[in-house]
Amino acid sequence: MSKLGELKCHSSRVLHLSQSPDGSTVVSAGADETLRFWEVFGPPMTDSSRVSDLDSLLSFKRSLIR
């Protein structure tokens, strides 16, 4: 088994992961009381293409979170 990547945006350990029904987005919940949204099959983001966490949260339909 080989490591494919890391989730480095949480300042504490990751407690939960959830995947959207279409499989394109993963949400991680950390012990630092934050949610992070990850596009797992999109192109790597550059600093100029980053979207704020609030914009990401608002664009993710609440009905997809289980």
UniProtKB/TrEMBL annotation:
A single GO BP: protein ubiquitination
Pfam family, one: WD40
Entry-linked InterPro entries: Cdc20/Fizzy (IPR033010), WD40/YVTN_repeat-like_dom_sf (IPR015943), WD40_repeat_CS (IPR019775), WD40_repeat_dom_sf (IPR036322), WD40_rpt (IPR001680)
UniProt entry keywords in alphabetical sequence: Cell cycle, Cell division, Repeat, WD repeat
GO molecular function, a single term: ubiquitin-protein transferase activator activity
Keyword Cell wall biogenesis/degradation part of the UniProt annotation: no
WD repeat intervals: 7-40
PANTHER family linked to this entry: CELL DIVISION CYCLE 20 CDC20 FIZZY -RELATED, CELL DIVISION CYCLE 20.2, COFACTOR OF APC COMPLEX-LIKE ISOFORM X2
Name of the protein in its database record: Cell division cycle 20.2, cofactor of APC complex
Biological source species: Vitis vinifera (Grape)
